[in-house]
Amino acid sequence: MKIDMFKKVLVVMTVAGAVAVVGCSNKSETEPVKTPGMAEKAGAVMDQAAAKTMEAATNAAAKTTEAANAAAAAAKDATGKALEKTGAAVEQTGVDLQKK
Q1: Mean pLDDT by 10 residues, the chain (100 residues)
Q2: Residue 16 covered by a domain
Q3: How many separate domains does the chain show?
Q4: Which of 17, 19, 47, 99 has the lowest CB atom count within 10 Å?
């Protein structure tokens, strides 16, 4: 009777081991799924959003640089004109002082 019980336990253990080996085996040999899952779709959407954000940031930086360069050029021109007027006034003052 003990031997019959031992045989039953051995058969059950063998079947359980076989099921575990088949169920846990490496599945890389099967063909991969061709349709993207939710994670791949979400990743693709995030990649597109990141690309659009990078493009928008690049465009904004370029426009900001152009505006800063234009402002700097205008400030340079205004400063140059102010210096010219100041120089002319100082020169006129010198002429006036020499006449006296």
Answers
A1: 74 81 63 73 88 90 90 91 90 84
A2: no
A3: 1
A4: 99
30 φ, ψ (degrees, to nearest 5): -80, 160
Residue 21 lies in a domain: no
* The residue count for the chain: 100
Instruction: Report d(CA 33, CA 22) in Å as an integer.
Output: 20
Question: For 30, left (φ over 0), alpha (ψ -120 to 50), or beta?
Answer: beta
- Give pTM, 2 decimals: 0.42
**In the 3-class helix/strand/coil scheme, how is 39-83 assigned residue by residue?**
HHHHHHHHHHHHHHHHHHHHHHHHHHHHHHHHHHHHHHHHHHHHH
Q: Which residues lie closer than 8 Å to 44 by C-beta, 6 or more apart?
A: 36
Q: Which two tokens stand for residue 23?
A: 């169920």
